[in-house]
Amino acid sequence: MAAVRSMNKMYGVCFHAARQTAGLKASRLLQHRAFRVGAVRQQQPFDSTLEKPQFPGASAEFVDHLEFIQPNVISGIPVYRVMDRQGNIINPSQDPQLSKETVLNFYQKMTMLNTMDRILYESQRQGRISFYMTNYGEEGTHIGSAAALDPSDIVFGQYREAGVLMYRGFPLDLFMAQCYANADDLGKGRQMPVHYGSKDLNFVTISSPLATQIPQAAGAAYAVKRENMNRAVICYFGEGAASEGDAHAGFNFSATLECPLIFFCRNNGYAISTPTNEQYRGDGIAARGPGYGMMSIRVDGNDVFAVYNATKEARRRAVAENQPFLIEAMTYRIGHHSTSDDSSAYRSVDEVNYWDKQDHPISRLRHYMTARSWWSEDDERTWRKQSRKMVMEAFERAEKRLKPNPELMFTDVYQEVTPLLSKQRDSMWKHVQQYKEHYPLDLYDK
Amino acid sequence: HFAFTSQCPTQKMNLFQSVTSALDNTLASDPTAVIFGEDVAFGGVFRCTVGLRDKYGKDRVFNTPLCEQGIVGFGIGVAVAGATAIAEIQFADYIYPAFDQIVNEAAKYRYRSGNLFDCGNLTIRAPWGCVGHGSLYHSQSPEAFFAHCPGIKVVIPRSPVQAKGLLLSCIADQNPCIFFEPKILYRAAVEQVPVEAYTVPLSQAEILQEGSDVTLVAWGTQIHVMREVANMAQEKLGVSCELIDLQTILPWDVETVCKSVVKTGRLLISHEAPVTGGFAAEISSTVQEECFLNLEAPISRVCGYDTPFPHIFEPFYIPDKWKCFDAIKRMINY
């Protein structure tokens, strides 16, 4: 019923009254989900004596006054949260009551990510790696959602979800190896930094084109549904990527094909320099969900428990009911878009400082922990030192490592090396041997 | 033009039926295989999927919303999750919304992930080529766009027997494949096709007819034009032509074509797609690199003009047998 009331506010039309007149339950409007796999919707028999529309395309009532539905972006879909900005639980029934061990792990993963970001951002500035993207301010979205999934659930990301991989146990050495493109990189040095992937951890390798992962996630979820092994798929993307055609495609396919899939939108306020009011005119991304027939929610992305609760419930129902769920996690991108960006060109330092100092997922969780005496100043100091040491050591190891053998430029284009590629490879080596003083062979593995 | 002798049981099938047969074999032997696209559920606009939904179930043969980027993106995801994905694009003319998913994603999945992930289980099928009245948007042959994309395979059959075998090879192949089906041959081409599954190898051009004076290279519908051209050349000019069906556009069988040109010294390549940047250009460039001193005449390309595919002017547009015959005449007299 609450959902219908918010629909009323959003559209300014009295759905409730219309539903009552029709004698249909209002909740049916939003939750008429068949559990059948790929079911063809039954067409009702046509009867022109009824004063009810017979169109196959929509089930609705007739209305005899002209009124456009007004999109409501002033008081749109509300933001679900569990903690206030000081880390206090607002409604005790919503506290997931996770163990101290679990919460400490959340905190340590978020702070480790933050530490790794600082060091790798600096390393790019020093010319040690070519490029980097930080996750400042969005750590809560990563850890909260990752913790709510099963390890076997498949993750399709965009590029700002390193915390999900970290939560699942991807070692610092492998983060570094990918950024340095050294011989330990699982990706064999082929991609720019932060394009991580891990088969073992079910994290599909990141690609630069935005939103391409969205319809792919729908396909993977469909395959996983057919396997019937209690697996879900989660698909992360930003509010900017949600403008791409692929996003529309993915939403529509997942709903019509009844896929066990969680769409997780990180709405962080900016797509590089483009603020949300230039990205969309509607009520964010969550409001699009109902347009696709999809269950949707908006959450406070800086509240790790809200993210956790929403993802957990979405996952449970997505698998049980074979339908997609859309979670729009509101947050703020504290850092620049990447090392190629200086965001002071398009936003004020004051704005950034507000989020950094007054509404940060890490400090909110720390307040929650300290209020329960789970974390002290000493613990903080010790952990900071320890986590920094771990990152620095991985960093130093990665830097010393050679780059992968240039042979690897020619493999994996196809499963097999084709005759043409074999010829090109031989030609490359012949050339490099002849002109070896012009090629940095010493940096590469033999 | 169509004849196939085989020991195993065969059935008279046209090209769309041979496609159905391949899909039927696949759904029977591979429990993960799914077929999807616009209108495939009722049997498809070209009847390639008739009967499959009833036989194998609604979860395996299903319609998608009208969205090519979605169809291919979804197909990639199915393949990445380990299932066999057979995606239908209703006409090759409409494949372009999926170009990003094909070129930036499918083709690069294995390479960019260091072989952690791949979509080798994906096959995309699309009706291709001129049909007499198709005009701009029901006649295109887009193979050249995809030939420029390392990581995918592009395959075009000339007949029902080749179609079934090549399609089954594409499905089995652990790389994403695009299979273009000459729509004009869907009903017109009829052969005795083996009922059981079999494969025709990819990246192996087939010499259909041996000859000594001119090498003719083509694929799909144009093979049948070239067969007639070869006969005309023999009867009217006493010229012996070696006819090669390239079959796989990418990766293409350089060795077979070059070996033939070394023998004959003359090459004619013909395709419906526009001549500039068409795949004949790639073949021509490679052959002149490899066989320069063997060439008796410049390599000839008889292709569509550099216009969109026209409606009423189709008879003037297509690279018909007279244009090809004339090209041979000029090559012989060079």
UniProtKB/TrEMBL annotation, chain A:
Dehydrogenase E1 component domain: residues covered: 108-407
Record keywords: Metal-binding, Mitochondrion, Oxidoreductase, Potassium, Thiamine pyrophosphate, Transit peptide
Single GO molecular function: branched-chain 2-oxo acid dehydrogenase activity
Entry protein name: 2-oxoisovalerate dehydrogenase subunit alpha
Catalysed reaction, written as an equation: N(6)-[(R)-lipoyl]-L-lysyl-[protein] + 3-methyl-2-oxobutanoate + H(+) = N(6)-[(R)-S(8)-2-methylpropanoyldihydrolipoyl]-L-lysyl-[protein] + CO2
InterPro entries: Alpha-ketoacid_DH_E1_comp, DH_E1, THDP-binding
Entry annotated with the keyword Mitochondrion: yes
Protein family membership: Belongs to the BCKDHA family.
GO cellular component: mitochondrial matrix
Enzyme type, top EC level: oxidoreductase
Function: Together with BCKDHB forms the heterotetrameric E1 subunit of the mitochondrial branched-chain alpha-ketoacid dehydrogenase (BCKD) complex. The BCKD complex catalyzes the multi-step oxidative decarboxylation of alpha-ketoacids derived from the branched-chain amino-acids valine, leucine and isoleucine producing CO2 and acyl-CoA which is subsequently utilized to produce energy. The E1 subunit catalyzes the first step with the decarboxylation of the alpha-ketoacid forming an enzyme-product intermediate.
Protein EC: 1.2.4.4
UniProt GO BP: branched-chain amino acid catabolic process
Chief place of localization: mitochondrion
Oligomer and partners: Heterotetramer of 2 alpha/BCKDHA and 2 beta chains/BCKDHB that forms the branched-chain alpha-keto acid decarboxylase (E1) component of the BCKD complex. The branched-chain alpha-ketoacid dehydrogenase is a large complex composed of three major building blocks E1, E2 and E3. It is organized around E2, a 24-meric cubic core composed of DBT, to which are associated 6 to 12 copies of E1, and approximately 6 copies of the dehydrogenase E3, a DLD dimer. Interacts with PPM1K.
The UniProt record lists the keyword Metal-binding: yes
Domain of life: Eukaryota
Subcellular location: Mitochondrion matrix
Cofactor dependency: thiamine diphosphate
SUPFAM superfamilies: Thiamin diphosphate-binding fold (THDP-binding) (SSF52518)
Signal peptide: none
Record Gene3D superfamilies: 3.40.50.970
Automatic annotation (TrEMBL), chain B:
All residue ranges annotated as the Transketolase-like pyrimidine-binding domain in the record: 13-188
Keywords carried by this UniProt record: Mitochondrion, Oxidoreductase, Transit peptide
GO MF annotation: an example: branched-chain 2-oxo acid dehydrogenase activity
GO cellular component: mitochondrial matrix
Annotated compartments: Mitochondrion matrix
A biological-process GO annotation: branched-chain amino acid catabolic process
Enzyme Commission number, as recorded: 1.2.4.4
Protein's UniProt keywords contain Mitochondrion: yes
The keyword Transferase is assigned to this record: no
Entries under InterPro entries matching the protein: THDP-binding, Transketo_C/PFOR_II, Transketolase-like_Pyr-bd, Transketolase_C
Cofactor: thiamine diphosphate
Pfam family, one: Transketolase_C
Catalytic activity, as annotated: N(6)-[(R)-lipoyl]-L-lysyl-[protein] + 3-methyl-2-oxobutanoate + H(+) = N(6)-[(R)-S(8)-2-methylpropanoyldihydrolipoyl]-L-lysyl-[protein] + CO2
Subunit text: Heterotetramer of 2 alpha/BCKDHA and 2 beta chains/BCKDHB that forms the branched-chain alpha-keto acid decarboxylase (E1) component of the BCKD complex. The branched-chain alpha-ketoacid dehydrogenase is a large complex composed of three major building blocks E1, E2 and E3. It is organized around E2, a 24-meric cubic core composed of DBT, to which are associated 6 to 12 copies of E1, and approximately 6 copies of the dehydrogenase E3, a DLD dimer.
Role played: Together with BCKDHA forms the heterotetrameric E1 subunit of the mitochondrial branched-chain alpha-ketoacid dehydrogenase (BCKD) complex. The BCKD complex catalyzes the multi-step oxidative decarboxylation of alpha-ketoacids derived from the branched-chain amino-acids valine, leucine and isoleucine producing CO2 and acyl-CoA which is subsequently utilized to produce energy. The E1 subunit catalyzes the first step with the decarboxylation of the alpha-ketoacid forming an enzyme-product intermediate.
Name of the protein in its database record: 2-oxoisovalerate dehydrogenase subunit beta, mitochondrial
Species the sequence originates in: Sparus aurata
Gene name tied to this protein: BCKDHB
